[in-house]
Amino acid sequence: MTVAKAMKGTIEWIIIVICLAVIVGTTHWTRVQKRIAVRDKDNLDEKASTVTRQRRIIYNDDGGGQYPHVNPRAAEGAAGFLSARFQPCVDTQVDSYFWCVGDGQTPPWGQPTPEAIGDANQVMIEAAHGAEMEIFASLRMNDVHDAAEPELIYPLKRERPDLLLGQRDQYPRGSGPKDSVMRRCWAGLDYAKPEVRDHKFQFIDALCRQYDFDGLELDFFRHPMFFKYGEIEQNIDTMTDFVRRIRQDLDNIARTRGRPYLLAVHVPITPELSLRIGLDVQRWLADGLIDLLVAGGGYCAGEAPYEQFIELGHRYKVPVYPCINTHAHSLYTKQPDQLFVPTIVERMRAMASNFWTMGGDGVYLFNMFDVRARGNYTPPAHAADCFNELGDPETLTGLDKLYGTDEMPWAFLGYAYNSWPSQLPAPLNLSVPIRLRISDPVEAAADSGLLKELLVRARVSGLEESERVALMVNGTTVPIINRIATDNEDEYWFEAPAAAPSLQQGINEFVVKPFTGAWGKRETMVEEIQVWVRYK
Fold first, then answer.
1. Rounded Cα distance, 494 and 486, in Å
2. pLDDT tier at 341 (50, 70, 90 boundaries)?
3. Cis bond leading into 266, ω under 30°?
4. Residue 349 in contact with residue 391, Cβ under 8 Å?
5. Which residue, 86, 80, 100, is CA-closest to 128?
6. Please, what is the end-to-end C-alpha distance for the chain in angstroms?
7. In the prediction, which pLDDT does 415 show?
8. Over the stretch 36-75, which tens digit does the pLDDT of each residue have?
9. DSSP code string of 441-509
10. pTM passes above 0.70
């Protein structure tokens, strides 16, 4: 009995100790949970203010400036590296710098950074924060530039060709049709394969834990194909789950470091075009997976309906930034002897004005560092002045602008099939109405005496020298005063002065149609419409 009593007493004490431990542990865990809740609330509060911060201009740097073959000064070290692209953005309307960290391989594109620079990611972070700029790591989700190389560069692509969207021998560059999307996109990774998603996730997780970026951009426009044809619809949830996995990882990192880690996505121009390639952006917005949205590749920025994503993003309190790409063909116009050559500056001003009118939260610039000569066009020395113009509708007021239709060659790296289609070219015989948004208050400017000129220009191909055309603006015929030959045979520009209110702020309709002496040939095409708005 004595032993039994002793055992009973011991068991009672053990039970008491366990209960006390449970109580203490529960109290401690409750306190931990409260601290986590407070910290999460602080993170959420800070995140809300960070998401809605001012981003007048977001500058995307593709990372090429760290390599001497692109930027000779990179060999000098960090100062030379930063001088090429970053330094011109300092103390301008550029509030956010999106630094491309490559496509998921280390080093980016298999090219090591010069030793004189050191860690390019860290150099960029310190420079941006030192200039009080926000900085995001921008990751290309399916870069296919290596499809044009003799051999694939990306290690995973070489080791696991079964993870690709296609094979080189299926789509030979030398013999395949030039208008084929798969001519380049065969070299993309197939996100239907879990190995691909795990590979990309591991890269993202390691990158974001190592570097103190303010956020991560998933660049889905480089390049816009992630699943094989015929397998897209059944993989829409696959990509949504992958984005959700990344969102959760960034939230975990944010808790650890005590401040938000934002997630931006760069997607095609409209929700429908995005869904076409397996990106259910509306679901991402509804589920709170993303913080910023960059719309479009910037190739058809003059005509695209960016308001679709702007309205959708704002419905979920997510800012939206339409994109301008300086590689867009429509920014450059070939003219003989530099006659009346429109500049990239006026074209980008017009695009940015439209973005602000549509309700955009800022302007996203892609390839701005690569404003190069096209045809006989030489970019103006003041192209960089755009950094202090495009990011505010007030600074755009009273500046000359060039509005116009877009040109998008189908074979341009597979972008065309997922960009907004231009209204032109169209047969002259059909007299197709062309709609353009003009954001300048031309009527008010005319009334105040500030307006110098409104000039409508139409480029028509396949014309005989004797043929004439007529031009209408919002139902009113405007007199053509100039006919200018181009470098292309049988192609001409027709110029007509317009006046407010025949040309007005908002959506305008233009019609080019056959006139006296026209032959009515099927191949005669209206190629382009331009509207110059010039101030005194």
1. 11
2. low
3. no
4. no
5. 86
6. 111
7. 79
8. 444 455 566 678 888 989 999 999 999 999 999 999 999 9
9. -HHHHHHTT-EEEEEEEEEEES--TT--EEEEETTEEE---EEEE-SSTTEEEEEEE--TTTS-SEEEE
10. yes
Decide: helix, strand or coil at residue 64: helix
How far lies 331's CA from each of 222, 326, 343, 349, 395, in Å?
20, 7, 7, 11, 21
Distance, CA of 300 to CA of 408 (rounded, Å)? 7
- Whether 257 contacts 263, CB under 8 Å: no
Q: Report the mean per-residue pLDDT for the chain.
A: 88
Q: Report how far apart, in Å, the C-alpha atoms of 183 and of each of 75, 170, 411 are.
A: 35, 9, 9
Angle between helices 236-257 and 194-210 (to 10 degrees): 20
C-alpha to C-alpha distance for 53 and 319, rounded to whole angstroms: 9
Do 82 and 99 meet the contact criterion of CB atoms below 8 Å apart? Answer: no
Q: Are the CB atoms for 509 and 474 separated by under 8 Å?
A: yes
Cα separations in angstroms, 424 against 134, 325, 365, 446, 527: 39, 19, 24, 30, 6
> Which tokens sit at 263?
């997630």
DSSP state of 408: -
Domain extent listing, the chain: 1-51, 54-418, 426-535
Q: Identify the CATH class of 54-418.
A: alpha beta
Report the alpha-carbon distance of residue 163 to residue 174 in Å, rounded. Answer: 23
Position 30 scores a pLDDT of: 45
Tell which CATH classification among 3.40.1350, 3.40.50, 1.20.272, 2.60.40 matches the domain 426-535: 2.60.40
Distance from chain centroid for Cα 2: 83
Q: What is the pLDDT of residues 133-183, one digit of tens each?
A: 999 999 999 999 888 888 898 999 999 999 999 998 888 765 555 677 888
Q: Cβ-count burial of 101 within 10 angstroms (0-12 exposed, 13-18 middle, 19+ buried)? A: buried
- The residue with tokens 């998008």 is 408
pLDDT of residue 120: 97
Q: Which two tokens stand for residue 113?
A: 């950074």
Can you tell me the distance from the alpha carbon of 143 to that of 185, in angstroms, rounded to the nearest whole number?
9
